Amino acid sequence: MITLLLIRHGIAENPRPGLRDSDRALTVEGWEKTRAAMRGLVLRGYLPQRGMASPYRRAAETLACLKEATAEGFPVACWEGLVPDASLAEAEAWLLGLVAEAQPFDTVALVSHQPFLSELIQRLTGSSVEMKKAACAVLHWNGGRFELAAQFAPVELRGEA
């Protein structure tokens, strides 16, 4: 069974004139809360073999927090298909290719944005989820379809719930 960790980026800078949306970074609070949430995810046994993020800075920084939380790290990359206005159909096709190439018990982390993540989860599993900043939805691929296995709010991951 292949596991996908679908993670929303952490708290980022507010939009402002002269700052491209793709350049918005995690805030100091965003770094702290996201690091804590990603440590909680790892403590629950979710150790990715690889990770992919939207090329937006806040997504890449969130993936860096997850990598930092693991003892050995894992290879990371960016994929344009995880940006906020990406095509759900293209993302689904890409994910099907990804699971076809994965090893039977691989865990892959994907960091993206809202509302894209909730819409993608709905498309893949039929489940409606709320994805707060630094939240994680766990999907399992059972050879024929994706299933929503778990959903963690950031406060749960940080041990505050």
Structure description:
- The protein has 161 residues and is α/β, with parallel strands linked by helices.
- The chain has a single domain, classed as Phosphoglycerate mutase-like (Rossmann fold, 3-Layer(aba) Sandwich), CATH 3.40.50.
- The protein has five helices and six strands.
- It has a six-stranded mixed β-sheet, sandwiched between helices.
- It is globular and about 45 Å long.
- The chain starts with a strand and ends with a helix.
Q: Care to give the gist of this entry?
A:
By secondary structure, the protein is α/β, with parallel strands linked by helices. Helices cover 35% and strands 20% of the residues. The model has no long low-confidence stretch (mean pLDDT 95).
Features of the shown structure:
six-stranded mixed sheet, 20% strand, 6 strands, alpha/beta, 161 residues, 5 helices, 35% helix, Rossmann fold, single chain
Protein topology:
Blueprint: E1 2-8, H1 28-43, E2 50-53, H2 57-69, E3 76-78, H3 88-101, E4 107-112, H4 116-125, E5 136-141, E6 146-152, H5 154-157
Parallel strand pairs: 1-4, 2-3, 2-4
Antiparallel strand pairs: 1-5, 5-6
* Strand order in the largest sheet: 3-2-4-1-5-6
The sequence of SSEs as H and E is: EHEHEHEHEEH
Biggest β-sheet, characterized? Answer: 6 strands, mixed
Supply Rg: 15 Å
CATH topology: Rossmann fold
Shape: globular
> In whole angstroms, how far apart are the ends?
29 Å
